[in-house]
Amino acid sequence: MTLDLAQFAADRDIKYFMISFTDLFGGQRAKLVPAQAIAGMQEDGAGFAGFATWLDMTPADPDMLAVPDPDSVIQLPWKPEVAWVAGNCVMEGQDVAQAPRNVLRRLIAEAAQEGLHVKTGVEAEYFLLTPEGDAISDPFDTAEKPCYDQQAVMRRYDVVREVCDYMLDMGWGPYQNDHEDANGQFEMNWEFDDILKTADKHSFFKFMVKSVAEKHGLRATFMPKPIEGLTGNGCHVHISVWDAPGKDTKVNVFAGAGTGQTGEVGLSERGKHFLGGIMKHASALAAITNPTVNSYKRINAPRTMSGATWAPNSVTWTGNNRTHMVRVPGPGRFELRLPDGAANPYLLQAVIIAAGLSGIRTQADPGPRRDIDMYSEGHTITDAPKLPLNMLDALRAYEADPELMAAMGYDFSRSYLKLKHKEWNSFVSHFSRWEKDNTLDI
Ligand code: ADP
Ligand code: MG
Ligand code: MG
């Protein structure tokens, strides 16, 4: 039965709903709607001028409506008089094909037709910076190897505890928090879920972490490489596929023989084909998983101060070894270590299904499992593609992959490429300090 948002508001003393949608660049856009008006909005949606956001539209286009999906509603734990709800974008009665949550919903339905139900967990790392965003907020957080630093995580206990308490209250099943590999960097983990739920939680997590940090006078960032020379913000995704969604899940379609430690990797035939699809489309899907100019300072990066970037350089997979693009940590799931903190929470999940389904349909072979330390021995592998070196490289790889473009939807792909090329052009036409430093005396 559909949840009645007006009743939900009355039961919980909610005064405002934030009807939210995510644009092509991952920005969350919202209208604050008083609870008195929510009944009408639940029917018709909240109106937006799409062109005013990062969507490929014109000022002359009709209104775009974000119709709230009541299954996604969350009362803000830090401001209980407001509730956040994800909207599905509609224009003149049709789903807007380029809207990221619609792209994901369409792919979920396609997978379901084949009896496949994807579940994922994300590891959305972030930095806590000064409010201006130009330095790590904790001046004592300077260790060369700061990962799991007990003292440093306790100096940010107020922020970390508050966010974790909220996840406990919301029933997300958080299970650990730590100081990560860069100074000023943190990670908080919660249980994996159906892929749309994970995408909504991922969006909400970013909103929540930024809001709580601001409340404490800090600035949280998920930017892929906010500080030169330090490990960047990854957003690893753990992936498994099941016979049914939600609580009806019984069989992990990906589980096969083996432990993931040695010998057989613990993936079924279909699991291997899904992985094969990820491997086959990796360079192209980087345009989605690593979507910004800054993303390419995290992958292909030189060694960081801590000793390793923990980010991949090449399209390779392995067992329980963190130096590759894909790690199979144990039976029945694998970890894609390519995505970064700038990935759009919906497109990130969508492109995983798109590539995975393509792999299953074409019975793609993931290629050999590599059991080496890619950071010290990667040069010995000559038959694995290098990941794109910059955003333009990734956009071109995406354009050169009609199968992935079709799976993501041509309308979406066209719009995404158009806006991203514009962004790249804006970047390269920006006059940089580097040019002056290196060219002035030529
Ligand atoms: P690590 O740092 O070792 O990569 P984390 O514990 O930080 O792992 O994150 C693991 C994520 O993977 C969590 O969100 C967890 O719920 C999720 N996960 C665990 N098992 C599965 C599975 N079978 N399918 C999808 N996600 C899973
Ligand atoms: Mg982790
Ligand atoms: Mg990980």
TrEMBL record:
It comes from the Bacteria. Keywords: ATP-binding, Ligase, Magnesium, Nitrogen fixation, Nucleotide-binding. Its cofactor is Mg(2+). Residues 100-442 form the GS catalytic domain. PROSITE patterns: GLNA_ATP, GS_BETA_GRASP, GS_CATALYTIC. Catalyzes the ATP-dependent biosynthesis of glutamine from glutamate and ammonia. This is Type III glutamate--ammonia ligase. It comes from Roseinatronobacter domitianus. The gene is glnT.
